[in-house]
Amino acid sequence: MSADTSLDQVSVDALTRDQAEAELARLADLLAQANAAYHTNDAPVMDDAGYDALKRRNAAIEARFPNLKRADSPSEQVGAKPSDGFGKITHAVRMMSLSNGFDDADIHEFDASVRKYLGAPGEIAYTAEPKIDGLSLSLRYERGELIHAATRGDGAVGENVTANARTIASIPQHIDGAPDILEVRGEVYMTHADFAALNARHTERGGKTFANPRNAAAGSLRQLDPEITRARPLAFFAYAWGELSEPLAETQMEAIERLAAFGFATNPLTKRFTEIDALLAHYREIETARATLGYDIDGVVYKVDRLDLQRRLGFRSTTPRWAIAHKFPAELAWTHLEAIDIQVGRTGALSPVARLSPVTVGGVVVSNATLHNEDYIAGYGSKGEVIRPDEEGQPKDIRVGDWVQVYRAGDVIPKVADVDLARRKSDTLPYSFPTTCPQCGSDAIREEGDAVRRCTGGMICPAQAVEKLKHFVSRGAFDIEGLGAKQVEQFYLDGWVREPADIFTLRARFGSGLQQLKNREGWGDKSAANLFEAIDEKRNIPLSKLIFALGIRHVGENSATLLATSYGSWEAFERAMTQAEIGSGTAWAELLDIDGVGEVMAGSLVAAFHQEGERASIDRLVAHLTVEDAARPKADSPVSGKTVVFTGTLEKMTRAEAKARAESLGAKVAGSVSKKTDLLVAGPGAGSKEKKATELGIEILDEDGWLALIGDA
Q1: Considering the chain, what is the average pLDDT of its residues?
Q2: Angle at the Cα of 483 (from 478 to 489), degrees rounded to 5?
Q3: Same domain, yes or no: 573 and 703
Q4: Looking at the 3D structure of the chain, how many domains does it have?
Q5: Residue 598's pLDDT is what?
Q6: Helix (H), strand (E) at residue 449
Q7: Rg value, the chain, Cα
Q8: 603 plus 649 within the same structural domain
Q9: One domain for residues 573 and 664
Q10: Closest Cα to residue 474, out of 464, 462, 488?
Q11: What residues have CB less than 8 Å from 273, skipping those under 6 apart?
């Protein structure tokens, strides 16, 4: 795969904006592949520790550079699309994933964030439960009867595996005393003993064996023939719920106890704690007992115990603020470095990748590993410090032919951690990093202060052009069914698609005649017709998706949505970008006046619309589209469409809660007072913002006035 793997050793705090954009593109691509492998194909290409650490790095970069967040960001996704082999079930309540911690400091930080959000310095209790390494399942009961069962899928839509779930002995078919509507969620798994017996039976029959219990459980539950599932020894632990017609309890622990009373198996290691140190001690007890449990776990999940506090804390886009998974450490292995290849990513970054003799790390066979950048190969870190020091403190460089230590702590492509100099042959030579692009031959330069060497070829470089097209068709952008990374590469190499507008002329150019698409390798009548229909469906596109799909540097999904909401229509947005001049003029000032738009992003936007080649490409694309105006704010709210600023100390809610509530009512929350501010909410300690609002004649309310206005008093 083509990816910018040279930056993942650079700390998030040290990344430049360009580096961050390249890194987010790389992470999105790799995590999408990992999601499909794990959730859809039941054949993971990485261990859970690696996957979760990779998502954590992505989240940290997005937190530092929120305007760079991509529409296909892993932080906006849960699982993967359901398989076509099953019917689909839309979850009444979305099935979320969990944020992750990897050490004690992460858990203390989680506790601090909970307290800060709630403004609660007092006692907060947490539950701790083993994180089962299986397949997530949601069971819906109505009036006590099991109605259907669905896998997680992409979080919104899962696979209908009802017939298969009915064959699992630990899943009740009927529940006495349950709420009229009860969705029970948990994990389908297979014990070590049952896994070994299953593989033994398959070996005796000459059949396929499973790599691990998780794959066996997932493959067994996702059988099209329920009788095959019935013959497999599956079990189910319940630990959560979805839609309810009435509350189960007042606390997480009491709710779990009630699920147990209904007849569900719940994990006996689930306990409640009021001290973080005790919580962490329980984690270590579980980790020590891990090998004796009889089933696979990959960490411990902590949840705020009081359900009313869970409701206050709410959710991020894909994860709850009130829970975190404390993951177990990754594994290490030594292997032989056979070659170093250079890949070119979307932003032109030259990324060295180690080709390894295959080795198993954390249950996954590894043959590739990132080498980050030329400094890392030479033995230096992002700040010029020596890494991998030898006995004399000198850097150990990495050479083809070396024996290297690899680990899976944060990437689909694992990392090289160390070199065994004792096994290095005397005739090996230091690696010479290329100064020209291996794809197009253009100069590859390294700007001062940048850890990355980049190809200067721009769109004449096929690697960069293909990556930009992949971004255009990615899930958060146009998301054209049947036109993914593989098809984009094929069409680009064939000369069929060189820029986004070419996608919308494919039918006219190749839908009939001597070069029919259906006659191309891998295509038939139906697949060609389906692709053309999928393309036509995307001729109507929401404004925010179009802005993001353009791939303008520094414009992520959130900022694209912000721009769309601010300008409303493509015509207004295009006119403003055309009229704007960097550093001066009304249009430029109005662009900067949008809360969340800084000079860097504004400059990138304006430059894109003023560069002749890029502007022409945009115009050719839009000529084929009908761009849908942005959704207008709620009209039934007293603050809908208004710009609100909060200042001073709020005493009845935290600042984060106030912001979330205002946005849910259709308001825009700004960080500073300007002539476009409609309302200032001022608590004790308000200073310059209140003074400026007074000077501008802006309405000022105290906290009680604000709560009365929005009906929360």
Answers
A1: 86
A2: 115
A3: no
A4: 3
A5: 86
A6: none
A7: 27
A8: no
A9: no
A10: 488
A11: 125, 126, 127, 128, 279, 282
Would you say residue 79 has pLDDT above 60?
A: no
Q: What is the DSSP string of 458-524?
A: GGGSHHHHHHHHHHHTSTTTT--TT--HHHHHHHHHTTS-SSHHHHTTHHHHHSSSTT-GGGSTT--
Instruction: Find the range with the poorest average confidence among 131-135, 155-159, 291-295, 399-403.
Output: 291-295
In the chain, pLDDT over 70 holds for what percent of residues?
91
Please state the rounded mean pLDDT for residues 682-706. Answer: 89
Least confident of 15-29, 33-47, 541-555: 33-47
Over range 28-51, report the average pLDDT: 71
Residue where a domain stops, chosen among 327, 353, 382: 327
| Tokens 């970054």 sit on residue | 349
Q: Examine residue 585 and state whether it is found in any structural domain, yes or no.
A: yes
Contact 45/34 with Cβ under 8 angstroms?
yes
Q: Reduced to 3 states, what is the DSSP secondary structure of residue 595? A: coil
Q: List the catalytic residue out of 69, 131, 642, 689.
A: 131
pLDDT band at 43 (very low <50, low <70, confident <90, very high): low
In this structure, are strands 135-142 and 145-151 parallel, antiparallel, or unpaired? Answer: antiparallel
**One domain, residues 616 and 665:** no
* Residue with more model confidence, 459 or 507: 507
* Shared domain check, 305 and 212: yes
626 phi and psi angles, rounded to 5 deg: -115, 110
Whether residue 651 sits in one domain with residue 606: no
Q: What average pLDDT does range 251-262 have in this prediction? A: 97
Torsion sign across C-alpha atoms 517, 521, 525, 529 = negative
> 647 and 624, same structural domain?
no
Query: Where do we find the tokens 């194909």?
Result: 41
User: CB burial class (10 A; 0-12, 13-18, 19+) of residue 521?
Assistant: exposed
User: Given this model, what pLDDT does residue 80 score?
Assistant: 47
Average confidence (pLDDT) over 191-198: 88
201 and 253 in a single domain? The answer is yes
- Confirm whether 131 is a catalytic residue: yes
For position 323, which CATH number holds? 3.30.470.30
Gap between the Cα atoms of 211 and 167, Å rounded: 23
- For 676, the domain range is 643-710
Q: Would you give the DSSP letter of residue 601?
A: H
